[in-house]
Specification:
About 5% of the residues lie in helices and about 55% in strands. The chain has four helices and 16 strands. It has an eight-stranded antiparallel barrel. An eight-stranded antiparallel beta barrel has the order 9-10-11-12-13-14-15-16.
Protein backbone atom coordinates (compact mmCIF):
# COMPACT_ATOMS: atom_id res chain seq x y z
CA UNK A 1 0.00 0.00 0.00
CA UNK A 2 2.94 2.35 0.49
CA UNK A 3 3.48 2.01 -3.29
CA UNK A 4 0.01 3.47 -3.86
CA UNK A 5 0.75 6.49 -1.71
CA UNK A 6 4.18 6.92 -3.32
CA UNK A 7 2.62 6.99 -6.80
CA UNK A 8 -0.08 9.45 -5.75
CA UNK A 9 2.25 11.79 -3.85
CA UNK A 10 4.91 11.94 -6.56
CA UNK A 11 2.32 12.49 -9.28
CA UNK A 12 0.59 15.27 -7.36
CA UNK A 13 3.85 17.09 -6.53
CA UNK A 14 5.13 16.81 -10.09
CA UNK A 15 1.84 18.06 -11.49
CA UNK A 16 1.76 21.03 -9.12
CA UNK A 17 5.47 21.85 -9.50
CA UNK A 18 5.20 21.68 -13.27
CA UNK A 19 2.47 24.30 -13.55
CA UNK A 20 2.70 26.72 -16.44
CA UNK A 21 0.65 29.81 -17.24
CA UNK A 22 -2.21 29.32 -19.68
CA UNK A 23 -4.50 31.76 -21.41
CA UNK A 24 -8.25 31.20 -21.44
CA UNK A 25 -9.36 29.24 -24.43
CA UNK A 26 -6.01 27.57 -25.02
CA UNK A 27 -5.41 23.93 -24.11
CA UNK A 28 -2.41 23.28 -21.90
CA UNK A 29 -1.16 20.93 -19.24
CA UNK A 30 -3.79 20.68 -16.50
CA UNK A 31 -1.89 23.16 -14.35
CA UNK A 32 -1.27 26.87 -13.80
CA UNK A 33 0.94 28.97 -11.54
CA UNK A 34 -2.01 31.29 -10.90
CA UNK A 35 -3.96 29.51 -8.20
CA UNK A 36 -6.22 30.12 -5.24
CA UNK A 37 -4.94 28.36 -2.11
CA UNK A 38 -7.38 26.68 0.26
CA UNK A 39 -7.14 25.29 3.80
CA UNK A 40 -9.86 23.11 5.27
CA UNK A 41 -10.82 20.96 8.24
CA UNK A 42 -13.38 18.14 8.28
CA UNK A 43 -15.01 16.19 11.09
CA UNK A 44 -16.39 12.76 10.05
CA UNK A 45 -18.35 10.45 12.42
CA UNK A 46 -19.26 7.16 10.69
CA UNK A 47 -20.90 3.76 11.08
CA UNK A 48 -18.78 0.65 10.38
CA UNK A 49 -20.54 -2.10 8.44
CA UNK A 50 -20.42 -5.35 10.53
CA UNK A 51 -19.23 -7.58 7.68
CA UNK A 52 -17.31 -10.10 9.84
CA UNK A 53 -17.57 -11.74 13.24
CA UNK A 54 -14.62 -9.67 14.50
CA UNK A 55 -16.46 -6.41 13.70
CA UNK A 56 -19.66 -7.82 15.20
CA UNK A 57 -18.00 -8.34 18.57
CA UNK A 58 -15.99 -11.56 18.33
CA UNK A 59 -12.84 -9.84 19.51
CA UNK A 60 -10.78 -9.48 22.66
CA UNK A 61 -12.71 -6.38 23.73
CA UNK A 62 -15.98 -8.30 23.49
CA UNK A 63 -17.88 -5.46 21.85
CA UNK A 64 -18.73 -4.52 18.25
CA UNK A 65 -16.39 -2.35 16.20
CA UNK A 66 -19.23 -0.32 14.68
CA UNK A 67 -18.15 3.31 14.97
CA UNK A 68 -15.44 5.44 13.39
CA UNK A 69 -14.49 9.03 14.13
CA UNK A 70 -12.05 10.99 11.96
CA UNK A 71 -10.61 14.49 11.87
CA UNK A 72 -9.07 15.78 8.62
CA UNK A 73 -6.82 18.72 7.71
CA UNK A 74 -6.46 19.57 4.00
CA UNK A 75 -4.54 21.87 1.71
CA UNK A 76 -5.83 22.45 -1.81
CA UNK A 77 -5.62 24.81 -4.74
CA UNK A 78 -7.84 25.91 -7.58
CA UNK A 79 -6.88 27.43 -10.90
CA UNK A 80 -7.55 31.15 -11.03
CA UNK A 81 -9.75 33.11 -13.46
CA UNK A 82 -8.00 33.94 -16.71
CA UNK A 83 -6.44 30.49 -17.06
CA UNK A 84 -7.74 27.72 -19.31
CA UNK A 85 -8.43 25.32 -16.44
CA UNK A 86 -9.90 28.07 -14.29
CA UNK A 87 -12.40 28.85 -17.04
CA UNK A 88 -13.35 25.29 -17.96
CA UNK A 89 -13.41 23.97 -14.36
CA UNK A 90 -14.22 27.04 -12.23
CA UNK A 91 -15.28 25.01 -9.18
CA UNK A 92 -12.68 22.21 -9.15
CA UNK A 93 -10.41 22.08 -6.11
CA UNK A 94 -7.65 19.50 -5.58
CA UNK A 95 -4.97 18.91 -2.99
CA UNK A 96 -3.54 16.73 -0.20
CA UNK A 97 -5.18 15.77 3.09
CA UNK A 98 -4.32 14.04 6.35
CA UNK A 99 -6.90 12.31 8.55
CA UNK A 100 -6.66 10.76 12.02
CA UNK A 101 -9.06 7.84 12.64
CA UNK A 102 -10.24 5.96 15.69
CA UNK A 103 -12.41 2.83 15.71
CA UNK A 104 -12.57 2.86 19.53
CA UNK A 105 -10.50 -0.35 19.75
CA UNK A 106 -6.90 0.81 19.41
CA UNK A 107 -5.45 -2.40 20.84
CA UNK A 108 -6.83 -4.62 18.05
CA UNK A 109 -7.55 -2.22 15.16
CA UNK A 110 -5.24 0.72 15.76
CA UNK A 111 -5.78 4.43 15.14
CA UNK A 112 -4.86 4.75 11.45
CA UNK A 113 -3.52 7.95 9.93
CA UNK A 114 -4.76 8.44 6.35
CA UNK A 115 -2.75 10.49 3.85
CA UNK A 116 -4.38 11.12 0.48
CA UNK A 117 -5.01 13.27 -2.55
CA UNK A 118 -8.49 14.68 -3.00
CA UNK A 119 -10.65 16.57 -5.45
CA UNK A 120 -13.97 18.32 -4.98
CA UNK A 121 -16.21 20.24 -7.34
CA UNK A 122 -19.78 21.40 -7.86
CA UNK A 123 -22.58 19.09 -8.97
CA UNK A 124 -25.41 21.65 -8.98
CA UNK A 125 -26.12 25.24 -7.92
CA UNK A 126 -29.11 25.34 -5.56
CA UNK A 127 -29.14 29.03 -4.58
CA UNK A 128 -26.62 31.87 -5.06
CA UNK A 129 -24.90 30.81 -1.81
CA UNK A 130 -25.73 27.10 -1.65
CA UNK A 131 -24.46 24.30 -3.90
CA UNK A 132 -24.32 20.51 -4.03
CA UNK A 133 -20.72 19.28 -4.31
CA UNK A 134 -18.87 15.96 -4.48
CA UNK A 135 -15.52 14.98 -3.02
CA UNK A 136 -13.29 11.93 -3.45
CA UNK A 137 -10.18 10.91 -1.50
CA UNK A 138 -7.63 8.35 -2.66
CA UNK A 139 -4.55 7.39 -0.68
CA UNK A 140 -3.25 5.15 2.10
CA UNK A 141 -3.95 4.68 5.81
CA UNK A 142 -0.99 3.91 8.09
CA UNK A 143 -0.88 2.38 11.55
CA UNK A 144 -3.41 -0.47 11.46
CA UNK A 145 -3.06 -3.35 13.94
CA UNK A 146 -3.01 -6.42 11.70
CA UNK A 147 -3.69 -10.09 12.36
CA UNK A 148 -0.96 -11.68 14.49
CA UNK A 149 -1.15 -15.25 15.76
CA UNK A 150 0.32 -14.26 19.14
CA UNK A 151 -0.63 -10.64 19.86
CA UNK A 152 -3.79 -10.08 17.76
CA UNK A 153 -5.22 -13.51 16.83
CA UNK A 154 -8.90 -12.53 16.53
CA UNK A 155 -8.47 -9.77 13.94
CA UNK A 156 -9.58 -11.58 10.77
CA UNK A 157 -10.21 -8.29 8.95
CA UNK A 158 -6.89 -6.46 8.62
CA UNK A 159 -3.82 -8.14 7.13
CA UNK A 160 -1.55 -5.10 6.58
CA UNK A 161 -0.27 -2.20 8.64
CA UNK A 162 -0.79 0.01 5.57
CA UNK A 163 -4.08 -0.14 3.65
CA UNK A 164 -5.51 1.70 0.68
CA UNK A 165 -8.05 4.40 1.55
CA UNK A 166 -10.93 5.48 -0.73
CA UNK A 167 -13.71 7.95 0.08
CA UNK A 168 -16.65 9.44 -1.86
CA UNK A 169 -18.97 12.07 -0.44
CA UNK A 170 -21.87 14.36 -1.41
CA UNK A 171 -21.89 17.72 0.36
CA UNK A 172 -23.97 20.86 0.69
CA UNK A 173 -21.66 23.88 0.57
CA UNK A 174 -22.86 27.18 2.06
CA UNK A 175 -20.88 30.37 1.43
CA UNK A 176 -20.69 32.27 4.70
CA UNK A 177 -18.69 34.88 2.76
CA UNK A 178 -16.68 34.67 -0.51
CA UNK A 179 -13.65 33.24 1.34
CA UNK A 180 -15.26 31.09 4.04
CA UNK A 181 -17.45 28.07 3.26
CA UNK A 182 -19.28 25.63 5.52
CA UNK A 183 -19.80 22.09 4.18
CA UNK A 184 -22.01 19.25 5.44
CA UNK A 185 -23.02 15.94 3.89
CA UNK A 186 -22.64 12.17 3.80
CA UNK A 187 -19.90 9.87 2.53
CA UNK A 188 -18.70 6.29 2.27
CA UNK A 189 -15.14 5.04 2.86
CA UNK A 190 -13.31 1.80 2.10
CA UNK A 191 -10.03 0.47 3.52
CA UNK A 192 -8.27 -2.63 2.12
CA UNK A 193 -4.81 -3.85 1.16
CA UNK A 194 -5.48 -4.56 -2.52
CA UNK A 195 -4.89 -8.31 -2.07
CA UNK A 196 -1.25 -7.68 -1.21
CA UNK A 197 -1.75 -9.40 2.14
CA UNK A 198 -4.14 -11.69 4.01
CA UNK A 199 -6.68 -11.34 5.47
CA UNK A 200 -8.22 -8.76 3.14
CA UNK A 201 -11.82 -8.49 4.34
CA UNK A 202 -11.76 -4.69 4.14
CA UNK A 203 -13.36 -2.10 6.41
CA UNK A 204 -16.31 -0.09 5.05
CA UNK A 205 -17.99 2.92 6.64
CA UNK A 206 -20.84 5.35 5.94
CA UNK A 207 -21.26 8.58 7.84
CA UNK A 208 -21.60 12.33 8.04
CA UNK A 209 -19.17 15.13 7.20
CA UNK A 210 -18.99 18.62 8.68
CA UNK A 211 -16.24 20.91 7.47
CA UNK A 212 -14.99 24.47 7.08
CA UNK A 213 -12.81 25.81 4.24
CA UNK A 214 -10.97 29.10 3.88
CA UNK A 215 -9.74 30.53 0.55
CA UNK A 216 -6.56 32.62 0.08
CA UNK A 217 -5.39 34.51 -2.99
CA UNK A 218 -7.60 35.24 -6.03
CA UNK A 219 -11.25 34.41 -5.28
CA UNK A 220 -13.40 33.47 -8.25
CA UNK A 221 -16.77 35.10 -8.53
CA UNK A 222 -18.18 31.60 -8.94
CA UNK A 223 -17.72 31.25 -5.16
CA UNK A 224 -20.09 34.10 -4.42
CA UNK A 225 -23.25 34.32 -6.54
CA UNK A 226 -23.14 31.89 -9.46
CA UNK A 227 -22.19 34.51 -12.06
CA UNK A 228 -19.13 32.93 -13.63
CA UNK A 229 -20.88 30.53 -15.99
CA UNK A 230 -23.25 33.20 -17.25
CA UNK A 231 -20.76 36.04 -17.69
CA UNK A 232 -17.47 34.47 -18.76
CA UNK A 233 -17.34 32.99 -22.25
CA UNK A 234 -16.20 29.38 -22.05
CA UNK A 235 -13.71 27.99 -24.58
CA UNK A 236 -15.55 26.29 -27.43
CA UNK A 237 -15.25 22.50 -27.28
CA UNK A 238 -15.41 20.17 -30.25
CA UNK A 239 -15.57 16.38 -29.63
CA UNK A 240 -12.46 14.45 -30.65
CA UNK A 241 -10.80 11.02 -30.33
CA UNK A 242 -7.76 10.29 -28.14
CA UNK A 243 -5.90 7.06 -27.30
CA UNK A 244 -4.62 5.98 -23.88
CA UNK A 245 -1.89 3.33 -23.62
CA UNK A 246 -1.11 2.11 -20.08
CA UNK A 247 1.53 -0.32 -18.82
CA UNK A 248 1.28 -1.49 -15.20
CA UNK A 249 2.53 -3.99 -12.66
CA UNK A 250 1.96 -5.12 -9.06
CA UNK A 251 2.30 -8.05 -6.67
CA UNK A 252 -0.37 -10.04 -4.89
CA UNK A 253 -0.87 -12.81 -2.33
CA UNK A 254 -2.78 -15.97 -3.18
CA UNK A 255 -4.91 -18.45 -1.26
CA UNK A 256 -5.82 -21.88 -2.67
CA UNK A 257 -8.39 -24.49 -1.70
CA UNK A 258 -6.96 -28.02 -2.06
CA UNK A 259 -9.64 -30.65 -2.54
CA UNK A 260 -10.53 -32.27 0.79
CA UNK A 261 -8.18 -29.97 2.74
CA UNK A 262 -8.29 -26.66 4.55
CA UNK A 263 -7.57 -23.44 2.61
CA UNK A 264 -3.87 -22.63 2.29
CA UNK A 265 -2.26 -19.18 2.02
CA UNK A 266 0.62 -19.66 -0.41
CA UNK A 267 3.90 -18.21 0.90
CA UNK A 268 5.41 -15.24 -0.88
CA UNK A 269 4.00 -12.86 -3.47
CA UNK A 270 3.19 -13.28 -7.15
CA UNK A 271 3.93 -10.86 -9.98
CA UNK A 272 1.31 -9.04 -12.06
CA UNK A 273 2.02 -7.29 -15.37
CA UNK A 274 -0.32 -5.93 -18.00
CA UNK A 275 -1.32 -3.20 -20.41
CA UNK A 276 -4.46 -1.71 -21.86
CA UNK A 277 -5.12 0.32 -24.97
CA UNK A 278 -8.23 2.51 -25.04
CA UNK A 279 -9.52 4.70 -27.87
CA UNK A 280 -11.64 7.39 -26.17
CA UNK A 281 -14.33 9.58 -27.68
CA UNK A 282 -14.16 12.88 -25.80
CA UNK A 283 -17.77 14.02 -25.51
CA UNK A 284 -16.99 17.15 -23.46
CA UNK A 285 -14.18 18.60 -21.32
CA UNK A 286 -15.62 16.55 -18.44
CA UNK A 287 -16.36 13.12 -19.90
CA UNK A 288 -14.93 10.55 -22.32
CA UNK A 289 -15.74 6.90 -23.02
CA UNK A 290 -14.41 4.08 -25.16
CA UNK A 291 -13.71 0.38 -25.64
CA UNK A 292 -10.46 -0.95 -24.16
CA UNK A 293 -8.26 -3.92 -25.07
CA UNK A 294 -6.87 -5.30 -21.78
CA UNK A 295 -4.07 -7.85 -21.42
CA UNK A 296 -2.71 -9.18 -18.13
CA UNK A 297 -0.25 -11.82 -16.92
CA UNK A 298 -0.88 -13.11 -13.37
CA UNK A 299 1.77 -15.46 -11.98
CA UNK A 300 -0.73 -16.79 -9.43
CA UNK A 301 -3.63 -17.49 -11.81
CA UNK A 302 -4.97 -21.04 -11.72
CA UNK A 303 -2.17 -22.44 -9.55
CA UNK A 304 -4.86 -24.07 -7.39
CA UNK A 305 -5.55 -26.49 -10.26
CA UNK A 306 -1.87 -27.56 -10.40
CA UNK A 307 -1.06 -28.60 -6.83
CA UNK A 308 1.81 -31.09 -6.88
CA UNK A 309 1.20 -32.65 -3.43
CA UNK A 310 -0.29 -36.14 -3.85
CA UNK A 311 -0.41 -37.35 -0.24
CA UNK A 312 -1.34 -35.78 3.05
CA UNK A 313 -2.94 -32.43 3.68
CA UNK A 314 -0.77 -29.62 2.27
CA UNK A 315 0.13 -26.64 4.45
CA UNK A 316 1.76 -23.29 3.76
CA UNK A 317 5.15 -24.90 4.45
CA UNK A 318 4.67 -28.06 2.37
CA UNK A 319 2.46 -27.06 -0.56
CA UNK A 320 4.06 -27.30 -4.01
CA UNK A 321 2.80 -26.57 -7.53
CA UNK A 322 3.39 -27.51 -11.13
CA UNK A 323 3.73 -24.34 -13.19
CA UNK A 324 0.49 -23.77 -15.14
CA UNK A 325 0.64 -23.32 -18.93
CA UNK A 326 1.14 -19.71 -20.04
CA UNK A 327 -2.38 -19.55 -21.50
CA UNK A 328 -3.81 -20.19 -18.00
CA UNK A 329 -1.95 -17.21 -16.56
CA UNK A 330 -2.37 -14.76 -19.44
CA UNK A 331 -5.69 -13.25 -20.47
CA UNK A 332 -6.91 -10.72 -23.02
CA UNK A 333 -10.27 -9.05 -22.67
CA UNK A 334 -12.44 -6.18 -23.82
CA UNK A 335 -13.95 -3.62 -21.46
CA UNK A 336 -16.25 -0.62 -21.73
CA UNK A 337 -14.58 2.41 -20.14
CA UNK A 338 -16.04 5.68 -18.88
CA UNK A 339 -13.86 8.49 -17.56
CA UNK A 340 -14.65 11.65 -15.62
CA UNK A 341 -12.07 14.30 -16.54
CA UNK A 342 -11.01 17.10 -14.19
CA UNK A 343 -7.84 19.17 -13.73
CA UNK A 344 -4.83 16.91 -12.99
CA UNK A 345 -6.99 13.86 -12.18
CA UNK A 346 -9.32 11.56 -14.14
CA UNK A 347 -11.48 8.80 -12.65
CA UNK A 348 -11.71 5.71 -14.88
CA UNK A 349 -14.38 3.00 -14.53
CA UNK A 350 -14.49 -0.19 -16.60
CA UNK A 351 -16.52 -3.38 -16.94
CA UNK A 352 -15.11 -6.13 -19.17
CA UNK A 353 -14.88 -9.80 -20.05
CA UNK A 354 -11.80 -11.90 -20.74
CA UNK A 355 -12.08 -13.45 -24.21
CA UNK A 356 -8.67 -15.09 -24.65
CA UNK A 357 -8.24 -17.10 -21.44
CA UNK A 358 -8.33 -20.54 -19.86
CA UNK A 359 -9.08 -21.58 -16.28
CA UNK A 360 -11.49 -20.52 -13.55
CA UNK A 361 -9.32 -17.65 -12.30
CA UNK A 362 -9.39 -15.74 -15.61
CA UNK A 363 -12.50 -16.99 -17.44
CA UNK A 364 -14.82 -14.32 -16.05
CA UNK A 365 -16.01 -10.73 -16.04
CA UNK A 366 -13.75 -8.12 -14.44
CA UNK A 367 -14.19 -4.58 -13.17
CA UNK A 368 -11.67 -1.74 -12.94
CA UNK A 369 -11.49 1.45 -10.89
CA UNK A 370 -8.50 3.68 -11.65
CA UNK A 371 -7.15 7.13 -10.94
CA UNK A 372 -5.08 8.82 -13.65
CA UNK A 373 -2.83 11.71 -12.61
CA UNK A 374 -1.44 14.07 -15.25
CA UNK A 375 2.32 14.63 -15.23
CA UNK A 376 2.29 16.44 -18.58
CA UNK A 377 -0.33 16.90 -21.25
CA UNK A 378 0.56 13.46 -22.67
CA UNK A 379 2.03 11.49 -19.75
CA UNK A 380 0.12 10.29 -16.67
CA UNK A 381 0.43 7.94 -13.70
CA UNK A 382 -2.12 5.15 -13.33
CA UNK A 383 -3.25 3.74 -9.95
CA UNK A 384 -5.98 1.13 -10.33
CA UNK A 385 -7.69 -1.86 -8.77
CA UNK A 386 -9.28 -4.84 -10.47
CA UNK A 387 -12.15 -7.02 -9.26
CA UNK A 388 -13.38 -10.32 -10.68
CA UNK A 389 -17.05 -11.33 -10.89
CA UNK A 390 -18.14 -8.01 -9.34
CA UNK A 391 -17.08 -9.13 -5.84
CA UNK A 392 -13.68 -10.87 -5.67
CA UNK A 393 -10.62 -8.61 -5.13
CA UNK A 394 -7.96 -9.44 -7.69
CA UNK A 395 -4.96 -7.09 -7.95
CA UNK A 396 -3.56 -3.58 -7.99
CA UNK A 397 -2.57 -1.84 -11.24
CA UNK A 398 0.32 0.60 -10.69
CA UNK A 399 1.76 2.03 -13.87
CA UNK A 400 2.45 4.73 -16.40
CA UNK A 401 0.37 5.83 -19.37
CA UNK A 402 0.65 7.98 -22.46
CA UNK A 403 -2.18 9.84 -24.20
CA UNK A 404 -1.95 9.91 -28.00
CA UNK A 405 -3.88 11.80 -30.64
CA UNK A 406 -6.47 14.40 -29.78
CA UNK A 407 -5.62 18.03 -29.21
Amino acid sequence: MNKIFFFLTISFLLAFAGTTPARAGQPSDSTSRRVTHVLGVDFRPAYVFPTTGFLQGENAAGRPVNANLAGHVKYGFRFAPGTYWGEVYPHALQGIGVGYNTFFNAAEVGNPLSVYVFQTSRVATLTPRLSLDYEWNFGAAFGWKKLDAETNPLNTVVGSRINAYLYLGLLLRWQIDPRTHLRAGVGVAHYSNGNTGYPNQGVNTVGATLGLTRYFGPVQRADAPALSAAVRPRPAFRPYVSYDLVFYGATRRKGVFPEGSSPVLVPGSFAIAGFNFTPFYNFSPYFRAGLSVDAQYDESANIGAHIANTTGEPSAETIRFHRPPFIEQFAVGLSVRAEVVMPIFSINLGVGRNLLCRGADTDSFYQILALKTDLTRRLFLHVGYQLYKFKDPNNLMLGLGVRLGGR
